[in-house]
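Dear colleague,

Thank you for sharing your sequence with our group. We've completed the structure prediction you requested, and as agreed, I am returning the results in plain text so they can be pasted directly into your records. Please verify that the sequence below matches your submission; if there's any discrepancy, let me know and we will rerun it promptly.
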Amino acid sequence: MTANVCRQCSADTTSIRLDRLAGEDGGVTIVIEGLPALDCANGHKRFPTPDFPLEFLQQLTDTDGLLVATPAVEKGLLKKKAHCPACKQKLPETPEGESRQRAEVAMPDGTPVMVELALPLFRCPGCQQEATLPGSGMERGVMQAVANAFRSAEIPPG
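Please find the predicted structure tokens below.
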């Protein structure tokens, strides 16, 4: 089977750009505009290459200007809690705002994809420093939000 044939129905596929995908997880929200995909006459969509989702995530994390919020520090053995990166005081459980950034993410075909990423912000009650989710929580939230955005476009994995 060639790359330009639909895996579901064997119809010819064409390259398209998806208008707007959105996904959310744990307070992390992502909007993706212009994502490349393959589409057939029967409306089946798939990624341009099998490795595209992983490559997209890598490009996303390497893009300057998206992950600009300072991550909180995670402390605790069993019940991990977020703490201020500056004074180490425990951060509130509820975010007080969000860090919203927009940037172009480079794609292999040279046409960038526009991505808007919103991360929850917590304000330290002690020093008033703003911080977002701890590093591992932020990475997990971004990956799951991207996966949810892909699902919203009904693109099957693989």
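Summary note from our side: The radius of gyration is 19 Å.

Kind regards,
the structure core
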